[in-house]
């Protein structure tokens, strides 16, 4: 399982870097040819693709994916606890979406980008068939094909990561944190009654994102906190003084 997660992380980060490179080339092509083609319908689709790609880049998907892998692997225990606790916060409560809500938004955007790409490619194929603007048409078609493959593959990987974190967030977690020679066990209890899972379905010529909402019985989980408040989990640990005091009292009673 560990090797599979590491492979997925490396592959996803590699795809994101390649997507950034392709986006820079696409931006340059649109900028250089805007004055000549801006009134044409196919170029309007290209502008829409550029707008969607800019929005995707502004979502900082690399940062969100990194947070998800911190939760999955537990490489940084403190950050894992903080991220799990942040899932209890909703955008309507704090005004800022948590990392899973941001990942869900990025997944929706990845699913929507493909449609204008296909429409732009269809119109530009007509130019190519008529031998109009051959250099421009071939370059743009190659870029759109590359972007489509990267976006669809990233979508599949993002869905896999999202479902893994969503599943972990519904389980009781006990995280060991080491600080100044002391080991502190921080416990996390899920409080969300509903959670979302994602699925990609192939329809005609692209993957379509499907969201499914599930309900969970938090109180029915084994070892759950019962009917008390679970908004914050308190670390439990023994200090040296309390341990020695308890040992001394036991010795005297014996």
Automatic annotation (TrEMBL):
Name of the molecule in the record: Nucleolus and neural progenitor protein-like N-terminal domain-containing protein
InterPro entries: Nepro_N
Organism taxonomic ancestry: Eukaryota, Viridiplantae, Streptophyta, Embryophyta, Tracheophyta
Any Pfam family: NEPRO_N
Residue span(s) of domain Nucleolus and neural progenitor protein-like N-terminal: 4-164
Annotated source species: Salix suchowensis
Domain of life of the organism encoding this protein: Eukaryota
PANTHER family assigned to the protein according to its UniProt record, in alphabetical order: OS09G0504900 PROTEIN (PTHR34786:SF1)
